[in-house]
Amino acid sequence: MKLLKHLLTKKASLWLLIPVLGIAFAFSTDNKLFDLAKNLEIYASVIKELNKFYVDEIDPASTIKSSIDGMLEQMDPYTEYYPEEEIDDFLSMTTGKYQGIGVIVDKIEGNYYFVQVEENEPAFKAGVRTGDQILEINGLDLKNNDVEPSKLIKGQAGTILHLKILKPDEISPKAIEITRQTVVVKNVLYAGMIQKEIGYIQLDDFNENAAKEVKAALIQLKNQGMKKLVLDIRNNPGGLLTQAVDVCNLFLSKDKLIVDTKGKVEDWNKTYKTLNQGFDTNLPLVVLINGYSASAAEIVAGVMQDYDRAVLLGQKSYGKGLVQITRDLPYRTKLKITTAKYYIPSGRCIQAIDYQHKKEKSKPKADSSTKTFLTQNKRKVKDGGGIAPDILIKDDLERDFLSALYKKDLFFLFSLEYYKKHKNIASAKEFQLSENDFYEFIEFIKLKKFTYQSPFSEKIKELEILGKAEKLNPELLTSLEKLKNNSALGLEQLLKDNQKDIKYFIEHEITAHYYFRKGVKEWSINKDDAILEGIKVLNQEEKYNSILKKHVQ
């Protein structure tokens, strides 16, 4: 990029690039290569003319970055270009390491908040807590500047970050200094016993050392008497394919096929098998998945299903069955390219969307277009659209009303108000929202002037507008109005009807303020429908074996 910037800032120098491109392909008889050379020459000419004649100065780096992004939009969303300034973010995605202070920031109602603070990391040690509002970063007032706080917060390890924050229970801002460090994000967030013989592991990523962390957790739980396991890979976006293979190997014997990758370049077609004997190949296992379990997480879930090694619980997974490689480009830039699809042991590919026909608007495969495959025990499974669980557990956020509250961050904002009034709460495992607290939430929602229309009411409203435009019979329009009024529940009634689930989400946010992510997991174990169902299945050996079609002698 530095060379391009230099070329573009020197008048009349860009024309030198054109003959070079011509020479590179002059002797090629391949039509595709000729087209490539021709269009590169045209592209270079466009940039040359813009740089020379455009009315305003152009920024070469951002102009070319935009053109690269536009080109890659024609591909699948996983083929990405990383300029030099984004390389550290890219590396943190694969290694689980980054230089910063150990926080996640979000913009809510125009203000920036720390919505996640990692225990024992620099921000935590400096007194930052979930719910603290960020007013200034290194003297920059966030109210009057359109900036990305996360980029300002990250920086070289050992450097000082100056923040001005406002805590929910205080009225005066506080200035703090934090020394940035290398933060290592663990793949295994939590491991513990959830019943006398049942262990639980939450695996959040498949970055470096994921399999080692899972194995260490298994050893720890075995020492505590574990004889059955719930492996939670919900909301796991995936990561390194090799780590997915190694995690599978913990539960499978040696030389088991895990995945085949097949692409355009034959050298990249590979077969991945287990290399070791496995940690425990008979441990009764439940795997939790949802719509945010993707890529490497889907490999683990799909392989466990194909070998009838585990019962899958939750919702259908994301459906990313594509493999990427990373190519180094000049000036510390990188290109991540989708090179292949992966196929799990039954022979199925779980890719949900066909990006090959992007001009026809990529859509997930319809059920009628999927193919049926067989697991090791001859159970029927399908390709396309992700991995379907053996037992479906409904996601509460699929309900429109709860989703509307969540998207407005009302659970988080109420937790700030709650925090102001309560210095201490019960332990994470025992905390519960009182009835009085719930009614305070109702009043809080009213003060926020939150409004909600159900999808049904919205459709009726659309019909009314269409009916008036078409000048339909007035009696029909009156009937539509009555139907809309009869179907519309008052806000307070909607809140009361959803009290149990609303309390769950509020308790989740409040627990995060006091006990952080580990505490939230301890709180949720006895309230999470998927975990509770997993425990139930593991405690019913006959049902467990029946689902997997295992024949016990």
UniProtKB/TrEMBL annotation:
Keywords noted in UniProt: Hydrolase, Protease, Serine protease
Gene Ontology terms: cellular component: outer membrane-bounded periplasmic space
PROSITE patterns in alphabetical order: PDZ
GO terms assigned for molecular function: endopeptidase activity; serine-type peptidase activity
Record flagged with keyword Hydrolase: yes
Pfam families: PDZ_2, Peptidase_S41
InterPro entries: ClpP/crotonase-like_dom_sf, PDZ, PDZ_sf, Peptidase_S41A, Tail-specific_protease
UniProt family annotation: Belongs to the peptidase S41A family.
NCBIfam families: prc
Protein name: S41 family peptidase
Organism: Sandaracinomonas limnophila
